[in-house]
Amino acid sequence: MTFLILLILIVGGVVAYRYRVPLIAKITGQKESRIRRALDQRKRH
Q: How buried is 42 (Cβ within 10 angstroms: 0-12 exposed, 13-18 middle, 19+ buried)?
């Protein structure tokens, strides 16, 4: 049972990371392009 919960958490984390831009945009109400630019700036620093 613990293995199943761990697997669900890992899969959920991967999906959330993969679709982070639309998720953040939906949660914050910002445009996706703005979120993408902000994330790109953080990578450069």
A: exposed
